[in-house]
Amino acid sequence: MSIKSIFVTSLSTPSTPIPSTPISSISRHSIFSPLNVAKATLMTTAALLISLASFDVWSQAGGMQGYDKNIKAIEPSSVSYSVGLAGDMAPTISRLILAESQGVRNSKLSPKGKYVAYISGLTGKLQLWVQPADGGQARQLTFGSGVRNYAWAPSGTHILYSADNNGNEQESYYLLNVEAFTEKEVLPAVEGGFRVFGGFVDETTILFTSTERNKLDFDLYLTNLKTGETTMIYEGRMGLYISSVSPDGKWAVMKESVGEDSDILYLFDLQNRSLKTISAPKRRANHTRAGIAWTKDSSGFYFATNAQQEYINLAFYDIDKGIKKLDQVPHDVEQIRLCQDDRYLAYTLNIEGFSQLQVKEVESGTMLKAGGLPEGILRIDCGVGATQLLVESKSSDDPGSLYLWDFSDTAEVLFEAGLAGVPKNSIVKPKSILIEARDGVTLQGLLYLPESKQETPPPALFRVHGGPTSQSRPYFDAMTQYLVNHGIAVFKPNVRGSTGFGHTYVTLDDREKRLDSVRDLVDMHEYLSEKEIIDGKNVAVAGGSYGGYAVNAVLANYPGYFAAGVSLFGVADWVTALEVASPMLKASDIIEYGDIKDPKWLAFYQQYSPIRQAKNINVPVLYSHGVMDPRIDIAETEIMVKTLRNNGIEAPFIRIPDEGHGWNKRENRMFYALEEVKFLRKVLNAQ
């Protein structure tokens, strides 16, 4: 049977914060598999009850000063969501969102390789699941309001996971026994405590950094999971995090942020509690994006870096001898794992957004090839003592499947994500497009074109990624597939400043060059319009977070190119945004944008922030923001909404009370998606 509709009850926003129920005390239901969840979901009629968002007594709803209750806003309300029929070649946005939730993310193989854990949004919230590596039944492990991250304990029988309060990013830690299915809260959330998990020192001790001392600097803490005793062992500073702990528990690899794309690499001695610099190049570089792969005897680790070179390539750090650079290729290494007791080094390369798996036998240098893996974005993992490599695959027609490979022949499917009745042949795959900017820089983007024949070029939506140090890649995207199946082209630009194209490219939008990346959107618009690939007079621009800023900026600086905008939780005024940024952003912001306390940068952003140029925006803009957002204050969106409305410009505003920096709950994603679809169809004159 097919779903006919999903109903959502109305939300009201509390005037004052109320205490929340800890995740560990929420009642649990029977353990069930993804297949059973799918069967339960795909009933004739289903009802989803959205409960009122709960807030910790110390959490500020709505950024620094709370949200403005006087602004007219759209909030989730009683709406019937039609999901249409399975097999429809033009699926509804609701069914596509259901399809998106069928996939897995952040999968990890347990030590010794008995289990595979992953996070799934199948139930409507991001929950933790575990599945036997031999292909047995998957089980859901968490049932609260959602999980942010997790890590296997060295024994492979326990998992430490973190959860926050409706997106405020101030986490509690919980320890879960996978086999006995019991759990306990081991570290409650602390006001102002932004935590970054580092790793297990041993089975009962964890290492993490947190800002709980002064709400700004990241100090190092050890917690005994048996007693709950927590000790600060090193007074840190802003932007200092743990990347990995050695197998013997004696060392921790640490990094200090240098902008959003780079870091300084350190080694922390857990016995002497001292910090040693490994790499701090004069020209900033990245050392930790691909991860850290320790040898089993803790004598050193593999990593990848672009120090003194253009691309992030393999290197090895020997505790006694220092750094040795390894293979040099003209692509970024995106992930590294050391497998089968150090026999195989596995890593992936990022080639124009697609992953290429490389596996080398360490002793002989022989390269191996895994058969049976699809094209797309690959994520790899192999637990200590495990004999197989876990591969998580995502692509434009795969929301997230799992494969296991034993380093011999063909990889075997462990979990194949379904598409909730969306026909696979209705999915449009992107084309990689290279475009030369007016100053000669080569830009890249992914173009999704409607497959139905049209007499004239289609209207289009530019979807700008966040970051800015991020990259548009060919993931399954519900909104993109909906639009192209309804005659609207989608272009996902990787403007200068994006990752995946080398060190030079990622730095081309720093500080005073910020608006060069905004101008790239205009150059790409002109190229696609002049080639009659899209209808240049009928193009909207959308983006979230930094992408939301890009929407505000291009509409303000280059009026006349885009017919409308969609800005999700974006920056309006860099002066206020940089002043109130969360501790996790402040360190990188100084390099990326300049120090807002410096009169030079204060004057720069006072002139070039979108809010200072809002009078130039003369097209409709759909705005949205989560009340609990700790990264970009909701006031950034509110000021744009009020300013545009005062200027007589249409500016609908969607406010989500129980979300932070993005929409994690399926009911909110569906509600928002329907509003965005309605807006885009109107402004682009689409059917």
Overall CATH class of the domain at 79-85 and 423-684: Alpha Beta
**Count of helical regions:** 11
Task: Specify the CATH architecture of the domain at 79-85 and 423-684.
Answer: 3-Layer(aba) Sandwich
Rg calculated over all Cα atoms: 24 Å
SS-derived structural category = alpha+beta
Gap between N and C termini: 28 Å
Main β-sheet, spatial strand arrangement: 32-33-35-34-36-37-38-39
Note the main sheet. 8 strands, mixed
Shape: globular
Low-confidence segments, given as residue ranges, are: 1-62
Q: CATH homologous superfamily of the domain at 79-85 and 423-684 - what is it? A: Alpha/Beta hydrolase fold, catalytic domain
Oligomer: single chain
Q: Strand portion, in percent?
A: 25-35%
What CATH calls the topology of the domain at 79-85 and 423-684 is Rossmann fold
Number of strands: 39
Helix content: 10-25%
Global mean pLDDT: 86
Q: What does this molecule look like?
A:
One of its GO terms (molecular function) is serine-type endopeptidase activity. It comes from Alteromonas hispanica. InterPro entries: 6-blade_b-propeller_TolB-like, AB_hydrolase_fold, Pept_S9A_N, Peptidase_S9_cat. Keywords: Hydrolase. The chain is α+β, with helices and mostly antiparallel strands. It has a domain of 269 residues: Rossmann fold. 17% of the residues lie in helices and 32% in strands. The protein is built from eleven helices and 39 strands. Helix 5 packs across helix 6. The longest helix is centred in the C-terminal third of the chain and has 18 residues. It starts with 5 loop residues before the first strand and ends with a helix. The N terminus is likely disordered.
